[in-house]
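User: New here, please read:
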Amino acid sequence: MSYYRDVREYLKTLEENGKLVRVSRAINKDTEMHPLVRLQYRGLPEEDRKAFLFENVTDVNSRKFDMPVAIACYAGTTDIYAIGMQCKKDEIYGKWTHAQAHPIEPITVSSGACQERTIEGTELEQKGLDMLPVPISTPGFDNGPYTTSSHFVSRDPETGQYNMGNYRGQIKATDRMGCFAGNFSGLRAHWNKCRALKKPLEVACVIGVPPNLSYAAVARIAPGLNEYGVAGGISGEPVELVQCKTLDLRVPAHSEIVRSVRRISRLHGPRGNWFLRRCQLYYDAEKPDLRRFFESVSAEREQQNPRHRHRRGRAPAVGGRRHG
């Protein structure tokens, strides 16, 4: 059995296995979407929990989006996770171990579905990221929409090794978004090296990838390995990559959406950190380790009629621990 070519094929498999709920009625991404999905984690037995595909997405201004949103589709339950790994539940750990011990290096193809449509220039400045139906994960507490299943691809400026990590991104403008990369993340390490070399760091943000890539992106893997190779180890076949048009980076060819970031600029300004303490909200604007990267988006590419992914539920377990 070959692995899922893209996330569309994977969602179809979830539906065939009774693990996907399609919601065709209008759902507000800013107030209703995540709370609806979250309800199943408050008492519903795990075997009855499912992934959700919202096909009629609106926002608080009654705007309608032409892109559906999938939530909890990668690891919403152990059953869903096993379908994504293409194995039985009790075989997940063994498959992870084998994938890291026997990575399969990616291959480059001449074109990919993610480049069916390119948005840049004036269209990017006027619409850009605002075209994406990014939900508000925790209405009433989040200060705006954040991507949660966004995988940032960068490359070590010294060794050329790729890193793909999952980072939360704040939509700040049609052509600008914020990204939190922790002190020990691969993206932060690459940025520190580029800063020392006084050169910009190129980054691509991909959304809507086959599940093996998402699992690799949220996992802690050993130094010397790259997520593309581990993802290939999971699927048993090399990941297909395509060359970015505006960056010297290769990204998964069958991604739904790719955002090309010309560089990560200087580290500056708090992104907006809100913490719930004693039923009150406090804003922390000074703590150094909570300051964020900011990015300037130079181009955005997507498949025709793309699907937006949003993370909800548990991240994959690796070595007995869950990461993400």
Notes: Residues 143 and 158 are 37 Å apart (CA to CA). The chain has one domain: 7-317. The chain has a mean pLDDT of 83.
